[in-house]
Write a structure and sequence with these properties.
- The relative contact order is 0.18.
- With 136 residues, the chain is mostly helical.
- Helix content is 72%, strand content 0%.
- Helix 1 (3-26) packs parallel to helix 4.
Length: 136
Amino acid sequence: MSPRVLAAVAAGGAVGAALRWGCGEAVPDGPGLPGTTLAINVLGSLLLALLPGVALVRRSPALAAALGPGLLGGFTTLSAASEQTRSLLAEGRSLLALGYLLGTLAATVAAVALASRLAPAPPGTAGVPSARRGAS
């Protein structure tokens, strides 16, 4: 990995993490379903799946790294979703925890499926993992 790409990932990650924190501050999760984290993860999944459809991103490995694993990797959060699920279980809210866990998975996969309908993969990239697109 080149120093330029590494710096792009680091900068993107810092911005993404700050955006996630800002969303949580602006719209804190209530006592029930952690809706803010769910919305962040669904939106991040959708945007990440749309990235390969953007020509500029495909042409620039540094931009792809900054926006994909950087910005959107810093924005989305499996660790917070996992901790919130654990917390719901600890509170004895097993059904809500299960619903949140399965709902997060279903909603993020649905967002990726929607992205593939909105912006099909560019020619020559079908079946290529998104992290490798634009790296050649």
